[in-house]
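DM between two lab members

TW: hey, do you still have the Isoaspartyl peptidase entry open?
JB: yeah, one sec
JB: this one, 309 aa:
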Amino acid sequence: MKTYSIAIHGGAGTLVKGMMTPDLESQYKDALRLALEAGYTFLEEGKTAIEAVEEAVRLLEDSHLFNAGKGSVFTATESHEMDASIMDGKTLNAGAVSLITGIKNPVSLARDVMEKSEHVFLAGDGAMQFAKELDYKLEDASYFYDEFRHKQWLEIKDTDSFQLDHAKKKDSKFGTVGAVACDQEGNIAAATSTGGMTNKKWGRVGDSPMIGAGNYANNKTCAISCTGSGEFFIRGVVAYDVACLIEHKSMSVKEASEEVINKRILEIGGDGGLIAVDAKGNIAMPFNTEGMYRGQKSSNGIDAVSIYK
Ligand code: ASP
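TW: and the structure you got?
JB:
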């Protein structure tokens, strides 16, 4: 049987080691483990890579610890605007949503865009209208509220900065979540979901819902989910760049991912990480920050959740 695998991330903006307590560390690891096992079980049962990445990301969205779904960061107007995307490496079908509010699991709405609309990317009021037509239930703001996120926002709310501005303070700068998987058929998929950046305004959208920037999947190359300074990941077309290095320069998924995260994105001033898997089930998870909440599990025996280097 072919190797099947899944990798997940909860963002490359981990708490700096000094701020992480043993109790908090085990909460993060438990939440990662839950999502990893759920996605892996789907693969074990013969479900598709798309089903596995959606399930893993839904569970990460349901945890208040990560900046996606419940626990999303606050915008400049004290609301939550979430972005998500999903892509199927077998068909190159993709779905994405941006600037949505009140949706418990943005990744599932992205999947519905892919499967139930003629389009790839729906944003703002239109995306909400689409959700309404599909009878999505809306959660009120209290569902998404997280005290730590609110405190982060209060600290910068009257300034022009957003949490991307992390030079002085490196706590929890990126908290996007994502999953990539290779199923028993050798099909791969990627999903990414985020609340974006604290204190963002003007309808700011990062790389996470942009196919080719924060998320991409193609059976010929790899499936990728990114986390990091979105503006740079958009300019670097990071996810597609990794796929291009594999396709045109015959690099392995590991070589290509490392080239982009440890060299190309740094050269243009960005930081963060990504998770990637190819159609043989090989996983790569490079990051150039202090840590990245992450997990990987494969039918070839790999099984780990980690935070720091
Ligand atoms: N890449 C995300 C964004 O720019 C942030 C993150 O990874 O946490 O919206």
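TW: got it. Residues 11, 13, 67, 174-176, 194, 196-197, 206-208, 214, 227-228, 230, 233, 272 surround aspartic acid (CB under 6 Å). The longest helix spans residues 22-44.
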